[in-house]
Amino acid sequence: MKPWVLLLALCPFAALAQTPQQPSCNLSDFFTSQFDYTVGSVVEPGQVVLLGERAGCLDEERAGCRTGEKVAPASSLVIGDRWNEYYCVQVLPPGKEVVGWAPAGRVMKTGHMAETDFTSWLGYWDGRGGRGGRTLEIRYEGRTLLLSMLPPGGEGAGRLIGSAEPMGDELFLGEAPCEARASLQGSQLVVTDNGQCATPADSLRGVYGSRTVAERLERLMKRLEDR
Question: Is this prediction's pTM over 0.85?
Answer without folding.
Answer: no
